[in-house]
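Dear support,

We are seeing what looks like truncated structure output for some complexes. This example has two components. We would appreciate it if you could run it in full and send us the complete token output so we can diff it against ours.
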Amino acid sequence: MTFAAAALVLAACTVPHDREVGRIDKASATDAEVAAVYKRYRQVRNAATGLLDPKPLSTIETGPVLAIDTGSFEVSQRLDASQEEDSGKVEILDVQTPRFTRYPLWYFSVVRDVARDVKRVQIFQRASAVDPWLLVSTPETLAATELPQIRTDGQGDARRVRPGDGAGMSMSVDDVASAYARTLGNADAAEAATIEDDSFIQQMRDAAAANSGLKGVKFAQRWSPEKVQYALRTSDGGALAFVTLLRTDTYTVPDGLQITWPDGSPQQAFLQAGIQGTGTLNYYHQVLIYLPGGQGKPRALGQFGGVVSGDAG
Amino acid sequence: MKRATGWASIVLGAVMAVLGLALMVMLGPDSRITTGPHAIETDGSVVVTAPRVITWTGLQIDVLVELPAQKPVFVGLGNTVDVQSLVGKTQRLEITEFGTPWKPTIKKRAGRPVVQGAPTSLDWWYADSAGLGGASISIDLPDEPVSLAVVSVGASNLSGLQVTLAYGIKGGFAKGAGLLLLGIGLVLGGLVLRRSARLDDEDEDQYGDDAGEPGDEDGAVVYLIVDEDGVEHELTAAEVEAGGYEIVEEDASEPDPVPDPTPVPDPPAESAREPAPESASEPAAAGTGGPVVYVFVDEDGIEHEVSEDELGDFEIVDDEEAPEDGRPEDGTPEDGTPEDGGQKR
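Here is the complete output from our reference environment:
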């Protein structure tokens, strides 16, 4: 009885102790931080939507996401149309917080947009200890799309994949970005055989074919991958990679002809006078690519993109 | 077993008591060791502990930083990754080693003059505080790599900085007292166990294996008589012999050879122990043909002996023939009123 009491008393005490400090690292965020970040994100985004002003977005987004959203706001402003407020019900389905030894920190989250019936697979990043959390990638998948399981370490934190590391996969994440871009740019490229012919590739090829069919117009499309920064290890030894691609559509129109786009389209918003001579439209596409473990072909699970700039020369 | 447990209890209790006492003495009633204020000479804006300098966990620390002239100052404890991101590229004093109570090794690191953001606006500090002329934090060190940073706020610097450090265990004095009391309790419990074991041994030596069995102390026979009020009186063997009592054996200590499966009410004690003392005291009168005594019971129920010469005045009733309920056969009232003569007993 006495021993039991003693054991209980000792167990109740937190005994301070000196410990071996191993790797200096930290999980990128706590659940509470993630919830707070997402709450703030929606508040600011809705404020920007209400004002139809993309400026507040720079406090919650950066990089290609900000460019795409800013483009979208500019389209709305030029077309005098309103943006849809993000006030519907959303569910945070998953949060994965890798560990980092230095900044930038980032985390992965999956949010279900009930109203639009899609999943937003997002990366929020904090560039330094004094910077806020910003959305840097947000490809969307169908709500029914099954995402691969993310592998975690002993502490429950997600494992990252170095972009150049292709161990256990058909290629590295960096190589996937390059091969995917070449495949999009040229269906006959050698890399096309290494990439699954997925619906995103089909959709982009169809759009390119339509533009190429414009009578008398010379159309060229170029795809450029950005350096991959965000990739997580999946439980099958593969990777889930966030690949950002810059698409440049160039139109060369003979004298006497003009290309115009229908009212309300993003292209029309950026190139209101249409194209006479040469004009370009730049798009960003954020593609969520799954590289299966083993020798399976990479394939896109979702994407988010839009016009970010236009130039009619 | 008792002896071994007693020893173990004494040893454990002594160790706990010593530890508890040491904790109380070391920490004092405020449960912490305080050192300072210690001056740190700097004209920079940051003093920080290097990675792996703070290695303890579970320890409560209190840090008070003070600056002269009401200069604004900030003190915070955060994950080393965060703190290094904040101050890693700033000119700073870095505490690269630290020994208790206050033996810091300080190195100067080059960098930009001030941190890039306001430390007060950051959300990742485990504990932080800012104030004019001083600021303090109190926190249990978490099980993570942490660093402590003192940062000047605004355009001021940290010249004249003084640091007071306290470390201890939250509620440590009370925990030490509890440990001491628990230890004392264990020691006392162990002593009681040991004493009990020794007494057991002595009993065994004195009485052997059968010692302590009831009714077997000396094998003596005790004679008891139970009077009319049910009170037992002890008699000597001589009195029993002289009194001519009927002896009924009753051995209370003898166990039942076969235990009853169901409890049975004990028979009336009198039936065994009280062999009708009146008849026992007058064994000759119980149907042995001895002399007959005639008595007359008066109105107060007092018996008076009647001689054979006076019998003519009374009707003779044989008492032994009276029914069990005590009522005479002829309907004489229970009180024995001699309206119709005397009684024979």
